[in-house]
């Protein structure tokens, strides 16, 4: 008994001493307003909107000049945090103005990933990612391991930007759930860099808030409000802003944004959000001291939660009970917690509430506290005992520790020292057990943190490898593109040169053709001109013959001659516009002409015209009046001056199917003697007929490649007699 009494007195002294030392420390370390500034370590430029907080206490931000003021005490740890620079921790040692220099954070470049993914590789990626999501809330290591496998390069596997974004979003979800918001922030950023996504941006803003980067969180949320959001996304953004402003103690802005979210949720009938937002508005009002408004919204949230499901209802009742506790309305608190206990018991094993406060041991403990606050100690004891029993069964050492200590204090206060001592001994045992467990948890947490960091490094290594491979691929692709581009340019240059050459050839050919056509047209015109000169010459000679008949008063002969002459003239005029006429027509004209000349010079010569029967006269053509000048020349310059009667022979002989030979032969005085008989007047005049004929033959041969070949020679050795041979080709 003495031993127990001594233990109780020691406990009382320990508690009293501990309380006295705390009071003394609080008296000597009064809060004061700490002032300071945050500047860039390199440029010395003040930095605005930096998160400034006392670890576990007050929060504020720097103004436009980078300055801040915050309530603090000696020994507090000041935390300066921003997404743009490395977090600074500063222990407050005195009440002086402080200047904190910060260094810019090194930003990692966005990883370069491959372009496409199909088939089995796509299926494998989805399977790994689904497995990672399955273990997200159960086993962080397994979950991250599956994300790593999803990102690991495999033969024939490529990862698209969208898939890479999904992987890093999942990694961010894992880190955020396991309270590693700094890692989650990096993950969400990489996800957005690979594929911009509004939902991931919302998660990034929430991660900023959880990491106490409140200004960055507010900035991201406000940017999102300028985008085209769905109704649910609008609710989430306004709700996130409300949460962030509530975290920094700005009740007015918190309620304002919660109310905006509630309006959108009501308009679009998003029921679960309506319940949550009523609850959050109640909490914000309670934090600001507006208890009546808080109670109104809590009443709404309770009614709405009851319409959803038991799990949601017990969660809301717990929140409202906490509000009643703060408001010292203990009877209402106890009633709600009793209802919560009943519903938790009715849910049994089906209860999957993750909130630690929503457990039977915690609810019993809080009911006991409410009775203790009213000094109803005996009513509190059964709830504490149930809390201890439940906690022991569920191995909840924290609640068990608190409940055993509270029970020891109650027994002490009501004078039951034996039970107080017994409870305190149990408390000491639980504390020791809890200490060991906490050490293990700390060790496990350190190991988990180390393993997660290693896995994060592994993922970073994979991204670096992917970046290197992608850079190589990109370089090879660009090189191939350059080669193809050069090849294309060369091809176009060659094609362009070929087109230019073809155009030049075409231009030259066109020019050549035009020149040839022009030359041909000129030759045709020359032929027409020569033919036009032949007709007057022939007519003039024929009229001279008529004139000679009239001179000798031989009218009858003149009339007959004129009749035959008119027939000849009609044929000549009909053919005057033709370049070529059938050989048969030319023979007819020639026969008619020779007949007229023989009619005039009967006593001077006889004539003979022979046509080879094998010649197909209709297949050969000849320029009109081509043979007449040679016949005329034979009569007028060879046979006319001969003393005895001469002979004129015209022979058409076939050499082959394509060629015939035309011979005009006379046994006249010859070309040499003929010149001697010319008068002075005849010598002065140039022979139009023979000259024009030679020109016509030259032009014809130029146009039609030697169609007519002419040879003139003497027959006899004394230079008498003349033979004219013409070779005429079919084409």
From TrEMBL:
Example of a GO cellular component annotation carried by this entry: membrane
Stretches assigned to the Signal transduction histidine kinase internal region domain: 527-605
Transmembrane segments: 492-510
UniProt keyword DNA repair present: no
Protein's UniProt name: Tetratricopeptide repeat protein
Keyword terms: Coiled coil, Membrane, Signal, TPR repeat, Transmembrane, Transmembrane helix
Signal peptide: 1-21
Cross-referenced Pfam families: His_kinase, TPR_16, TPR_8
TPR repeats: 235-268, 275-308, 401-434
InterPro entries, per database record: Bact_2-comp_sensor_kinase (IPR050640), CarboxyPept-like_regulatory (IPR008969), HATPase_C_sf (IPR036890), Sig_transdc_His_kin_internal (IPR010559), TPR-like_helical_dom_sf (IPR011990), TPR_rpt (IPR019734)
Lineage of source species: Bacteria, Pseudomonadati, Bacteroidota, Flavobacteriia, Flavobacteriales
Region annotation Disordered: where it falls in the sequence: 670-692
Coiled-coil regions listed in the entry: 438-472
Chain intervals with Basic and acidic residues compositional bias: 670-683
A GO molecular-function descriptor: phosphorelay sensor kinase activity
Top-level taxon in the UniProt lineage: Bacteria
């Amino acid at each position: 008994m003495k031993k127990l009494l001594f233990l109780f007195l020691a406990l009382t002294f320990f508690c009293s001493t501990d309380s006295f030392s705390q009071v003394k420390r609080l008296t000597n370390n009064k809060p004061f307003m700490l002032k300071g500034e945050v500047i860039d370590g390199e440029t010395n430029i003040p930095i605005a909107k930096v998160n400034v907080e006392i670890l576990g206490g007050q929060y504020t931000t720097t103004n436009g000049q980078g300055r801040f003021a915050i309530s603090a005490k000696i020994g507090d740890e000041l935390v300066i945090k921003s997404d743009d620079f490395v977090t600074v921790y500063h222990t407050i040692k005195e009440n002086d103005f402080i200047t904190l220099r910060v260094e810019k954070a090194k930003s990692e470049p966005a990883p370069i990933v491959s372009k496409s993914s199909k088939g089995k590789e796509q299926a494998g990626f989805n399977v790994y990612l689904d497995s990672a999501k399955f273990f997200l809330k159960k086993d962080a290591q397994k979950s991250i391991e599956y994300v790593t496998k999803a990102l690991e390069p495999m033969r024939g596997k490529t990862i698209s930007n969208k898939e890479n974004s999904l992987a890093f979003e999942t990694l961010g979800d894992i880190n955020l759930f396991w309270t590693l918001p700094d890692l989650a922030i990096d993950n969400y950023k990489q996800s957005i860099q690979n594929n911009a996504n509004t939902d991931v941006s919302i998660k990034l803003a929430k991660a900023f808030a959880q990491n106490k980067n409140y200004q960055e969180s507010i900035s991201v949320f406000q940017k999102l409000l300028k985008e085209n959001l769905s109704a649910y996304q609008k609710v989430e953004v306004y709700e996130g802003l409300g949460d962030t402003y509530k975290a920094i103690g700005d009740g007015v802005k918190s309620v304002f944004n919660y109310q905006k979210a509630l309006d959108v949720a009501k308009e679009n009938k998003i029921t679960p959000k309506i319940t949550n937002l009523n609850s959050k508005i109640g909490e914000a009002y309670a934090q600001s001291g507006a208890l009546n408004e808080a109670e109104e919204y809590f009443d709404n949230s309770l009614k709405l939660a009851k319409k959803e499901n038991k799990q949601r209802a017990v969660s809301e009742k717990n929140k409202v009970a906490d509000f009643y506790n703060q408001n010292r309305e203990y009877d209402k608190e106890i009633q709600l917690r009793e209802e919560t206990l009943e519903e938790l018991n009715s849910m049994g094993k089906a209860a999957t509430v993750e909130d630690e406060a929503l457990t039977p041991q915690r609810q019993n403990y809080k009911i006991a506290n409410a009775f203790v606050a009213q000094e109803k100690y005996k009513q509190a004891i059964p709830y504490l005992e149930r809390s201890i029993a439940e906690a022991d069964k569920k191995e909840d050492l924290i609640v068990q520790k608190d409940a055993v200590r509270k029970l020891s204090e109650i027994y002490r206060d009501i004078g039951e020292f034996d039970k107080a001592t017994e409870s305190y001994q149990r408390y000491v045992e639980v504390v020791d057990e809890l200490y060991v467990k906490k050490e293990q948890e700390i060790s496990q947490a350190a190991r988990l943190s180390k393993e997660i960091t290693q896995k994060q490094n592994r993922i970073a290594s994979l991204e670096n490898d992917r970046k290197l491979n992608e850079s190589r691929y990109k370089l090879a692709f660009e090189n191939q593109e350059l080669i193809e581009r050069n090849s294309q340019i060369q091809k176009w240059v060659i094609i362009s040169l070929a087109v230019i050459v073809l155009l030049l050839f075409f231009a030259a050919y066109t020019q050549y053709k035009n020149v040839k056509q022009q030359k041909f047209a000129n030759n045709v015109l020359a032929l027409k001109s020569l033919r036009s000169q032949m007709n007057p010459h022939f007519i003039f000679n024929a009229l001279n013959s008529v004139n000679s008949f009239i001179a000798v008063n031989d009218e009858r002969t003149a009339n007959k001659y004129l009749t035959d002459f008119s027939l000849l003239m009609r044929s000549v005029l009909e053919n005057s516009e033709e370049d070529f006429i059938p050989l048969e027509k030319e023979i007819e004209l020639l026969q008619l002409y020779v007949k007229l000349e023989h009619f005039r010079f009967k006593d001077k010569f006889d004539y003979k015209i022979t046509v080879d029967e094998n010649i197909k006269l209709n297949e050969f053509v000849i320029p009109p009046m081509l043979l007449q000048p040679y016949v005329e020349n034979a009569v007028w310059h060879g046979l006319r001056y001969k003393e005895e009667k001469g002979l004129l022979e015209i022979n058409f002989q076939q050499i082959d199917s394509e060629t015939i030979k035309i011979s005009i032969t006379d046994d006249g005085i010859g070309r040499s003697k003929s010149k001697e008989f010319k008068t002075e007047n005849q010598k002065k005049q140039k022979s139009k007929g023979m000259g024009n004929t030679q020109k016509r033959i030259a032009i014809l041969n130029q146009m039609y490649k030697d169609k007519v070949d002419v040879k003139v020679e003497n027959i006899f050795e004394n230079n008498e007699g003349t033979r004219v041979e013409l070779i005429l080709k079919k084409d």
